[in-house]
């Protein structure tokens, strides 16, 4: 039991770091099938794995939210340029350039619509089209086949009569 616990801890740590179960088992030197068997027989371990996966997912979501926020408001970043000296090509000159990324309105709208939907939601009235279609009478449903074919032929022949003029 003690040895098993020592093998489970690194797997859980890798799961919290964002690895999938197979990669976490491989890095922890535990057979995937063995770990799955342990997980199936022990509900606490199953619950622990689910919590670790949720923690990892929450960390990823927070990173993406932070990136979206930065993109929405704009930010400055440093860029390193390495150039060779014109007089002496063996010497490299390193220049640090500070660039600014302008705010992105699309990212701002997306961020606001998800963070404050009561104020920023795209409010459109939803129409129940099912009831409209259900209560509509089909005018062509009561026509005989000959009448319907005549209407169709009329649409087909009409352009020909226009071309003859």
Describe the fold and architecture:
- By secondary structure, the chain is an alpha+beta fold.
- The chain folds into two domains: about 1-70; about 75-165, no CATH class.
- Helices cover about 65% and strands about 10% of the residues.
- It is built from eight helices and two strands, in the order H-H-H-H-E-E-H-H-H-H.
- It has helices at about 1-15, 20-25, 30-40, 45-75, 105-115, 115-120, 130-135, 145-165; strands at about 75-85, 90-100.
- A two-stranded antiparallel sheet has the order 1-2.
- Helix 4 (about 45-75) crosses helix 5.
- The radius of gyration is 33 Å and the shape is flat.
- The model is unreliable at about 160-165 (pLDDT under 50).
């Amino acid at each position: 039991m003690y040895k098993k616990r020592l093998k489970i801890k690194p797997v859980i740590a890798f799961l919290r770091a964002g690895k999938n179960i197979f990669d976490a088992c491989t890095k922890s030197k535990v057979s995937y099938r063995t770990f799955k068997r342990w997980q199936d027989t022990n509900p606490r371990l199953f619950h622990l794995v689910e919590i670790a996966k949720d923690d990892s997912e929450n960390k990823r979501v927070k990173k993406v939210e932070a990136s979206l926020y930065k993109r929405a408001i704009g930010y400055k970043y440093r860029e390193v340029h390495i150039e060779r000296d014109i007089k002496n090509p063996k010497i490299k000159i390193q220049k640090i350039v500070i660039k600014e990324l302008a705010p992105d309105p699309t990212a701002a709208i997306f961020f606001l619509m998800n963070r404050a939907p009561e104020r920023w939601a795209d409010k459109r009235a939803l129409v129940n089209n099912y009831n409209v279609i259900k209560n509509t009478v089909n005018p062509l449903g009561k026509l005989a086949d000959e009448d319907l074919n005549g209407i169709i032929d009329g649409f087909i022949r009409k352009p020909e009569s226009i071309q003859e003029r």
